[in-house]
Amino acid sequence: MTELVEEKPPGVIRRMYNWTISWADRPQGTWALFWIAFAESSFFPIPPDVLLLALCFGARDKWARYAFVCTAGSVLGGIAGWLIGWGLAESVAQPLLRLFDPDGHTQEKIELWAGEYGFLGILLAAITPIPYKVFTVASGLLHYNLPLLIVASIIGRGFRFYVVAGLIRVFGPRVRPFVEKNLEWCFLAGGALLVGGILAIKLLH
After folding, report:
1. Residue 155 counted as domain residue
2. What is the pLDDT of residues 39-71, one digit of tens each?
3. What's the pLDDT tens digit per position in 93-107?
4. Global pTM value
5. How far apart are the C-alpha atoms of 13 and 21, rounded to whole Å?
6. Which of 75, 94, 119, 189 is 20 to 30 A from 159, comparing alpha carbons?
């Protein structure tokens, strides 16, 4: 007799992932994208790229709109994350950082980049796939300049989301497996090119 293997229920992260994806099929998907991007900047564990990809696959002609909504939500959420780090250090910021960066390595990297490269270091942190929530909350905790954080977030997060949405607009479903599998490498390569371009402009002047 064949034994029935009981399937394990999905974990918390998988359930959140499935819940995030489910908004792609609802009329309120655009608003969900905004609020998920906002929340991910300080505490939500699922990156908004997941829903951004799903929405763009469903309506490729709206790719720029979705990228803008995602960027706006992420930048405004980043400001909220900075305020949490700045004003709620002990009660909220420290527990969040212990949850998402328990060994403190990401915070050390942010401090190193900001200390050595200034604005470019902050910009690189905004583009690369380090947890953005750790970046924003730690920036508030360390009292980094908020206007610089906002500018870096607009450039960095905008670059990230427009690249993701633009790839879907140009290549469509054919590029989906590649993007989903190599998303972090795409961000790293793109971030290096962007920062390298800015450095080249500064050197030329």
Report:
1. yes
2. 988 888 778 888 888 888 888 889 999 999 999
3. 888 888 878 887 777
4. 0.78
5. 12
6. 94
- pLDDT for residue 34: 96
The answer to whether position 70 is within a domain reads yes
Stretches in the chain below the pLDDT threshold 70: 1-14, 17, 128-129, 173, 175-205
Domain that holds residue 77: 29-204
Integer CA distances (angstroms), 107 to 13, 83, 160, 168, 202, in order: 23, 17, 21, 32, 27
122 contacts 148 by C-beta, under 8 angstroms: yes
Contact 131, 39 (CB under 8 A): no
Alpha carbons within 13 A on the beta-carbon side of 176: 12
